[in-house]
Amino acid sequence: MPTDGENEVSVQLPYGPPPVLPDIEKQLKEYLLCPERLPIHNYEQAQQFWPRVPNPDSLFFCELSPLGTTLKVDRDPTTGEILQFREVPIDDIGCTARNSLSLKRAPQPFNESVRGNDSNFPFLPGGFPELLVKDVSDEQDTDIDFENDLLYIAPGFTRGIEFKADGHTRISEDDQTIEVINEVKEDERIEEEPSPAFNLMDVMKQEEDLLGLWKENSTQIQKDDKKDKEKMIIESMETGEDDALKVIPEKDNIPVLKISKAPPPASERVAEWAEKIDETLPVLDFQQKIPNPARRFHFDLDPFQQQAILKVEEHSNVFVAAHTSAGKTVVAEYAIALSRKHMTKTIYTSPIKALSNQKFRDFKKEFQDVGLITGDIQINKEANCLIMTTEILRSMLYQGSEVVRDLEFVIFDEVHYINNAERGHVWEEVLILLPKDVTIIMLSATVHNTLEFANWVGRTNQKMMYVISTLKRPIPLEHFLYTGTGGKQKNDRFLVMDGNGKFNEAGYSQAKQAKESKKPGKDAFGPKGPRPGFSQKQEKTMWEALISHLKEKDRLPVIAFTLSRNRCDDNARCLSVDLTTQREKSYIRVFFKKCLDKLKDCDKTLPQVQTMKSMLERGIGVHHSGILPLLKEMVEMLFQQEKVKLLFATETFAMGVNMPARTVIFDSIRKFNGQITQNLLPAEYIQMAGRAGRRGTDKKGTVIILCKNDVPKMDDLKSMMLGKPERLTSQFRLTYSMILRLLRVEKISVEDMMTKSFMEFKKQTRQSDYQRELQRIQDEIDQISVTCTKSGNDAELTDLYYSASEYLDHFFDTRLRLLSLPRALKDVQPGRVLLITYEEHVNKLALLLKLETQKREYKYHVLVLCNNENDYSGDGEIRLSVKTEAKKEEKRKKSAMWYKMLGLVNYEKVFVPDGISEHAVLIIGPNDIFEITTKSIKVNTELILNDWLQRQQPRFKDKEPGPSCMQAVQELTQMSLNCSETSFVQLYKDKINDIDFVKKLKRMEVLLGRVQSVKVANYPHFTEEFESVFLRRQLEKERDNFKHLQSHQSMTLYPDYQSKVQVLKNMGYINEDCAVDMKGNVAIKMRNHELLITEIVLRNILTDLPPAEIAALLSCLVCQQRTRFKDDKDPQMDLGVSLKDGIKKIKEIENTIKKEEKNCNVEQLPAINQDLSFELVRVVYEWAKGKPFSDIMTYKVDVQEGIIVRCIQQLSETINDVKDAASTIGNTLLKSKMEDAQKAIKRDIVFLASLYTSDTTLPKQDEIDNENKDE
After folding, report:
1. Which of 11, 277, 972, 1015 has the lowest tally of Cβ within 10 angstroms?
2. What is the chain's alpha carbon radius of gyration, rounded to the nearest angstrom?
3. What is the pLDDT of residues 282-293, one digit of tens each?
């Protein structure tokens, strides 16, 4: 029987089975080629909606309000029995990170606990105690006065509607004008009415505390008694009682004259918030004061370390400024151990990322619970001790990180880095933003103004700061000059400064003689003499001779500071010496191989890797920014193990981890600082020389300065070796990111940050003095208003004063420049007659005797005529008159400005002496010369000046003036009598290209004409009336000046702040009310180039580009290296069209921002605001495309490997900022591309994990020896 399967008929269709699913390709073609078939054109079916289901119950739901009160238990203090429950209000109710500065606010989500969020408020800084009261008061409910507290001008509007008292009648503009006029009249009436009343207690108080010598008991009871007695006196005076006269001080309240105690030094009185501790006094009872220390050390602590630890135990702020290798890190280690004991947190900050990695490894050995936070990695971020750069800590403070809640100590290492022009402002921001409860520990090399800086930190945080310094190094240094060149001369080194810091001039002379004797004559080098500089062969000979000499003297290892990366490489490559044993070579090979295991095979063959391997096996290392980070860390580790005997390094090696050597060599003491080549500063020399001498190993350190061409000058050596350490100076500056952050927070203003900065510290400490001066001036103004009567010419005299004052202000600004013009320099020569006004010498003709120029300052010695007054007797003897207080006051009031105004008003009235004239020689400045006449007196001016100087000596005071002097006096008198014939040199006729300067000169002509046209100047009592107006207006000017000094407008950076705010307004980052807009919220997320990156993102320049091109374009923001291609080829020639177009657009944006900043007068800092560099665009593009690092280095670009790696690492952080910005504006496509770009560059040798943060351990020498034996 056939089965069911046999009955089935199989049919094979010629075109396959019929389609079950629609053809995707056909549908896609119809979709793209036939848009009319799209469903959007079928509007009948397109108008569909889903009916909404009503749910009235949802209207009744609301979030529960937080409880405003809680229950508090009262217990018996003896038995602990519960007595009662009390309901108490909860502080900071409803406070969150978005609306409050309080530490009691609600915590953030876990994912924002470490780095915080850009939308958060920072915690309350220690220097802003007034903000906490304001913060709390803002949260509390207050009664609103609906009659007086309502605004009548809406925010954002310039006009509004104001109503009368009835609440509905509108006040017209005429009514408002009349009301304002009435108020002004009322104010003037009150001001004119003199107040005869005075406060008797103010008069009594002035009599007390004379010279600060009286001491009163300051207990609260005695203060209250004193106030009661004063009150009794006033009341009895008002009531007429005689009992007040019987009030006498009690026995215990009698002031006591302090004569047994000298007043404290001025430096201690100035340091209100800082105290210097005597570091020479040992702490004998250290064990008794800290019986259970948080950490014990296996060595005896120095006195400065003990004193610092005692202050750390007291939770006091400490500033340790000690010499290099003195042991400052001991204080940091104890603070970390103490925070572990207290179960709190410590943050250790460093100036550079490499130093953070090194400290992480060192502290990891001592304390297990250590974390590291950098821009790209986070290791154990919840650890007890967190190590980070100062920029990371600043970001955490601005973003309100939850770490701050449990923060007990913040340790600032290398605080002297605050002097860095580019990054020093970060330290100031962090010190201002830290909460008051955080203890600050600052570690620094020796600096000059430790007490001043500590005083600022203490005042900023409202907490006492203790300064602890060291007087000398624990290991003394000996400084030598080396003049050897090889052969028999290899031992030629001469001591120029011993371990006690005494300069040895005899050793310097010997070095100079030795160098002079080695100079070849002209015959050996032809007629031109010897060629300057050392050849490579001479360098090699000298270095090998020096290393041989040091090896014989047992002075290895050596750090050779060479202040040029290229010279470091050249010197290391040219040497053929071998400084390691076979055991050490074996150790280095094993360690080198172990470290390179993570690299690709192609990266292991990099020329720099192979060269470094060869040099390290011979005990020679190189350390500078051009070396790959992996190789630098290998060199550092081998140097610590004393496998590297000779290390060529730049000055960056002197910063950070304690890596001392036995000897330090300076290849040169001259350094290029980015603008000029100059000698090393004392601080730079001390920092590098301080690496010589290992504590616990060496008894002394050796410092050698190479004398290749000539011996340095003695004065240069003394100033460098014996000069004072550097001063800590403020580098505070305003960034757009800081301004936007603080404008959004609102409760901490930008003005507050500027006020608290170190830059404004001195001015802020003088505010009390300004207030006293302001009160004194106001009292004088009030006294003048009472005593002086107004005349009918006050209005005209006031106008005269303002015109003359404005003219003189312009006159002082322009005079020096005018007298520096070629015509003036030609005419102003000895013998020329000038018209001057100097103090009481008003409008006098003066004979120029001598012109001195010192540091662009001009001093003129002139001969003038004087009246024969009572100050001179008939026989020529000078009479000394006693200046009474009244005369002193009159002299003070009649300032130089008074005399110059008189001379300006009487411009055409030249002084003519009465009767027989006397003469005097004055020394005046450019501002005292009103005019240069066209006349000269042909006389020997040098004889006149010498004759005058001789007659000033007591034994020649009766000598008659010489013939030349008498002739000059006679001719000056004749010219004064015929003053109408005197003409003046027109300096304005010289060609001046400065438009603003010319405008100022023309304004002066207008003002001078206005002053000279005043008719009141010819009135009989003009001088008396004008003096009254002058005194009042001068006091008002001084008052306005002191008010200005007390305002924000007087701050140094305030104009720059206003300019940058205007830039932000013009470009749409903030509105007219300074509220931050969307563009501003994007710019806040940027670490640098805030405006440029924001414009690039919002103009959608990157969205359409592939990830590799995005990374290449953004490299211009982090590349600071000015590269030079070896074949002088344009680096942009081989780029694609899209990259060239992107570069063009970025340059246009950069020019737009610069133009806007120029229009708004933003201060340009050349050391910081550098032009963008596009030299590494192609390199980064190829790297992002996936090419190996070895292939990239084959390009003909003169950039070292380490520079490229550093650029790409910084590029990763910039890409992360752009990714956050894309997320903020909702551009998911750009965010995705930025993630792809970041993945493309984060690979291989560029982002290889640091040896300090990885599990790489140094091999043990015994294990390597055993392996070699087995082989």
Report:
1. 11
2. 40
3. 888 888 898 899
